[in-house]
Amino acid sequence: MAVPLLDISRQHEPIMDQLREVLDRALESSRFVKGPEMESLEAEFAAYCGSSSAIGCASGTDALILALMALGLKTGELVVTSPFTFFASAGAVVRAGGIPVFVDIREDTFNMDPDLLREWLETRCALTDRGAVEKETGRRVAAVMPVHLFGQPADMDAIGSICAEWAIPVVEDACQAVGAGWGGIKAGSLGEIGCFSFFPSKNLGALGDGGMITTDDAALAERMVRLREHGGQGYLHSEVGFNSRLDALQAGFLRVKLARLDGWHEGRRRNAGFYNEVFADMAGVTTPFIDPEAWSVYNQYTIRAVDRDGLMTHLRSNGIGCAIYYPLPLHLQECFASLGYTEGDLPVSERASLEVLSLPVFGELTRDELEEVAAAVKTFYGLD
Ligand SMILES: Cc1ncc(COP(=O)(O)O)c(C=O)c1O
Fold first, then answer.
1. Residue 384 pLDDT > 80
2. Nearest residue (CA) to ligand 1, atom 8
3. CA distances, 105 to each of 74, 114, 125, 294, 308 (Å)
4. H or E element in which residue 131 lies
5. Residues 12-41: pLDDT tens digits?
6. Which of 7, 5, 11, 4 is nearest to 254 (CA)?
């Protein structure tokens, strides 16, 4: 039996009529960009995340760029992030004019290691009247941007208190973590600004691209609203932004899906629980570690596997979808060579990239499919 890594059509099947109604509404109203549909989504999304404001935009990448711009990032300033993430986390920093600094991840959660963040700040930076500044270069640290990878928030207690000490704002890259939590607080409400992606494969996926930014800071919210529309109010421009509007159609689709999101999360968590049990104590496989403070929404179910490439080939040849997120950490990407990192600099990320494999975990998987995946993994390690 073939098992896909993700089959979005199964999620859409029971809501097809509602999705078509959204399309009809848009055609009837001829409002295709922003408008009441987006405003309703913004209000519903802010309530969902426990934030004062939510601002729709065109993608998760744009959400990150807009957040950094709103915080006043200037050309050549530093943004500290994780090297073990989707490219956009660091790409957005560069597009916003900044320079990424990579701090390695925790071995167990794959998220930014707060101890290493503290160490970097204490060894490389000084707290000045301009804020935290890298001593050697004089560059300001404009933001710390932890990534909530695979649906599990980074350690936001530790990162938050370190950043408070150093007077650095925290931008959550929550693009994979809508609905996730840390210490009972939802992603998007854990830092100064939260950034979300509605790329179709996310837990809350649009039928195209889309993004959202959350914040409790009214001034930041107002600035991001301006920046997403060329920095203007009407035809008066106090600064230069860009075009990052959210389509009304996508907003409508997302409203239908947001109402069902927690149910879909439950399905993912149930499936993760199934694998956790089956793979517990299995030599060859390390199941995902979820911090006791964290509430994971399992955007991915990512194991560490002995002979990962062999396991991937075996699964794929048996029709089982799986993928490596991510095969090359960002500090070793060609486009970041000028940052001066070399192999061995961030060993935890480098090792993770050689060992991780993500398995199908979407909520609509059947029990038979889950068992098929588990059996194939077991067969590979000679355990059936
Ligand atoms: C961690 C992370 N950051 C940023 C992004 C960028 O989001 P988008 O693809 O919507 O631009 C994504 C998703 O693609 C992501 O997974």
1. no
2. 60
3. 26, 8, 20, 16, 20
4. strand 131-134
5. 999 999 999 999 999 999 999 989 999 999
6. 11
**Nearest by Cα to 268 from 87, 17, 10:** 10
Q: Say how many C-beta atoms besides its own lie within 10 A of residue 273's C-beta.
A: 11
Give the ranges where the chain is alpha helix by DSSP (H): 8-12, 16-29, 35-49, 60-70, 88-95, 114-124, 156-165, 218-227, 248-258, 261-279, 308-317, 347-355, 367-380
Q: How many whole angstroms from 110 Cα to the centroid of ligand 1?
A: 16
Ligand 1 centroid distance, CA of 199 (Å): 7
For residues 268 and 168, what is the distance between their CA atoms, to the nearest angstrom? Answer: 34
Q: In what order do the strands lie in the sheet with 294-295?
A: 185-186, 181-182, 294-295
Write out the two tokens for 104.
């390695």
What's the pLDDT band for 234 if we cut at 50, 70, 90? confident
Residue 326: is the preceding peptide bond cis (ω within 30°)? yes
pLDDT digits over 240-259, tens only? 999 999 999 999 999 999 99
Quick check: helix, strand or coil at residue 161?
helix
Pocket test of ligand 1: the residue of 199, 209, 326 to mutate, having most ligand atoms within 8 Å of its CB, is: 199
Asked whether the beta carbons of 180 and 295 are under 8 A apart, the reply is yes
Pocket of ligand 1 (CB under 6 A): 59-61, 85-86, 88-89, 147, 173, 175-176, 197, 199, 209, 211
| Average pLDDT of the residues in 143-170 | 98
- For residues 37 and 31, give the distance between their C-alpha atoms in angstroms, rounded to a whole number: 9
Output the six-digit token pair for 269. 């968590």
Predicted model pTM: 0.98
Q: Give yes or no for a contact between 55 and 224, defined as CB atoms under 8 angstroms apart.
A: yes
Q: Which of 178, 197, 209 to mutate to test the pocket of ligand 1 (most atoms within 8 A of CB)?
A: 197
